Amino acid sequence: MKQNSTPFNNDQEAKQRDLSLNKSDGTNKPLTTNQGVKVNDDNNSLKAGERGPSLLEDFILREKITHFDHERIPERIVHARGSGAHGYFEVTNPIPQFTKAGFLQEVGQRTPVFTRFSTVAGSRGSTDMARDVRGFSVKFYTQDGIYDFVGNNIPVFFIQDATKFPDLIHAVKPEPHNEMPQAASAHDTFWDFISLMPESAHMIMWVMSDRAIPRSYRMMEGFGVHTFRFINEQNESHFVKIHWKPKLGTHAVVWDEALKISGNDPDFHRRDLWEAIDMGNFPEWEMGVQIVPEADEHKFEFDLLDPTKMIPEELVPVTIIGKMVLNRNPDNFFAETEQVAFHPGHVVPGIDFTNDPLLQGRLFSYTDTQLSRLGSPNFHEIPINRSISPTHNNQRDGHMRQEINVGRVSYSPNSLGGDCPYQSRIADGGFASYNERVDAHKVRGRSESFSDHFGQAKLFFNSQTQTEKDHIIRALRFELGKVETMAIRVRMLGILSQINTELAQKVADGLRLVVPASPEQPMNHGVSPENLGGEQEPKSVPSSVEFSQALSMINNPTVTPTIASRKVAIICADGVDEQAVLDMKMALLKESAKGCLIAPYLGKVITDKGGEMPVDFSFLTSSSVLFDAVYIPGGQGLNELSQDADVMDFLNDAYRHCKVIGVQGQGIELLSGTSFANKIDNGDEGIVIGADTENTDFAANFIAAMGNHRFWSREAGLSNN
Ligand code: HDE
């Protein structure tokens, strides 16, 4: 057992008990004002005569309206759109040799967590399906205080220095003159900035990949981005990069699907997370670490402090140390998901920072932003932010102070209060910053070791499968195609040509442009570079790893195929084969997946046996982009659906988005009206056909095909854009 703090707490419910102190439930309770006075009439304001003016005296009306008027708080400047859930973190492989962090010490030790996923650029009400980075934040309520992991689903970032962050965000947010476009990077100001910032080249490869359009928050990796430090009991430091690997694998949708999901269900990811937890399909991630000893700090061809670089897993493998399970939806979105305040500077003994200049800037920004968003330095007292380990200090007062500090002493040193609260020795769990030696001139500049902007961008692109490369090319054609200023498009082609000439050429072909012979130099307004501060001349250092399997979602070796929690659309109409539907639903349920009945109408369908089955969605209220696969059972009556344009769109989209389509018995006739009718006999593995309804292997074959997620070979003949 660790000797320096409280014994290990293993209480995953501790935070729920803490939150319950603030919960309020009005069931079977009288309506009251905020002052506790019971209300007799909540429907009429007080007036001078029934048709007369309202009276100022009406304290019930005034209180209700005033509170309403002040309901909104500023949304987050970035990551405004998000969804959260409660759960726990469990240690599976303790690493006390690297960190003394109390919550990472013993196998089976559990710590309550609250996790929030988000998009970056869009407003609170924007679509979940924007092409964007996803935030991945975890608040650990540890026995030694709060530890916040505040990462993304992409392991690198656009910029190297915090001072460029306001510029980056101003460029990507809707343009200031007309507030367009919402939740989209496909516009001039973003690409103008990016085309002038070659350090963003690596990140651009990730953001243009399918990582930026995840199938689900539950199917994304998480990365801490910066190199942090782990500190052990001997006060030794190791560099660490933190990873989260989703148990369901890392999966994405396709761009055309993303656009249609945004129209069909802008809450797609929020709903997916909520429903999965509601149904008991608790999302799970493994936490892994890449550890680099201090002595190896300069061993790599990139700088560990540069947040535009990751450590290829081929150089330093990821060691799994624990898992996170999200098993409880919030009770109240505002109180929990909106008011939760993360901060990369919330660390506990055993975890410390490095000099990554992006991280250093973040350490300032997060408290500052909570002051404007939540309105007071007492935001740590909001229940979702409250530590479950006791807090005592001499900080006092401020807006909305909840704590009632007793006694006359609020300073240190003091003799009147026995010099309490007292400071803790390191051995008793007191936090002491890592004793790093710093001996340098004050300088506003950048290390030469940060000047490789293209080496890892190349590694990323080269590590993708052809399908993934094609998706990156198409994403860039789309994004740059929305840019109106020709010079920006051309400048971006210059950047791309330094990553990969084939990439640049194919993007240029889509835009009908010529790749410039040499990339454009930054504008310095006539001032020679030596008279300006700023970056080093960009360069490209070849990566010592030429191909990294972990960078491709399709090749990713950690994925075990599963269809758990996936949704299947079962096409129905009166006369549908009842047994086939029931068998498929049962087979899916066994794999923790769900079959939903879609019919031309809501209510019920009458089956071939004269029975009734409830319909989940009509073709009007649903779309195949909201499902992972389509199943067409046999039965009379389905044929008529081939005259229905909505049904044909449903099936054509499922095919276009490379999804599994299973069809049994007479159901096959329905496919004759689709755009892919001529492909059915071509051996497309994603079309699973059961000629007769007795085929017992059918459901198993269908489920096995679904485990592949998508059948990319179909894309070859679909579109050349
Ligand atoms: Fe953030 N970021 N960020 N960021 N960030 C915020 O804090 C900031 C960066 C990340 O679910 C803000 O509470 C600066 C990298 C996530 O509540 C703000 C810089 C990474 C979230 C802020 C960065 C992140 C935020 C806005 C460059 C990945 C959502 C609201 C120096 C490692 C947290 C808030 C949540 C939120 C500042 C760059 C992740 C303004 C100055 C790199 C997941 O403080």
TrEMBL record:
It comes from the Bacteria. Pfam families: Catalase (PF00199), Catalase-rel (PF06628), Catalase_C (PF18011). Keywords: Heme, Hydrogen peroxide, Iron, Metal-binding, Oxidoreductase, Peroxidase. Its cofactor is heme. It catalyses: 2 H2O2 = O2 + 2 H2O. Its EC number is 1.11.1.6. Residues 1-11, 21-46 have a biased composition (Polar residues). CDD domains: catalase_clade_2 (cd08155), GATase1_catalase (cd03132). Residues 1-50, 519-541 are annotated as: Disordered. Residues 32-420 form the Catalase core domain. One of its GO terms (molecular function) is catalase activity. InterPro entries: Catalase, Catalase_AS, Catalase_clade2, Catalase_clade2_helical, Catalase_core, Catalase_haem_BS, Catalase_immune_responsive, Catalase_large_C. Decomposes hydrogen peroxide into water and oxygen; serves to protect cells from the toxic effects of hydrogen peroxide. Belongs to the catalase family. HPII subfamily. This is Catalase. It comes from Flavobacterium arundinis.
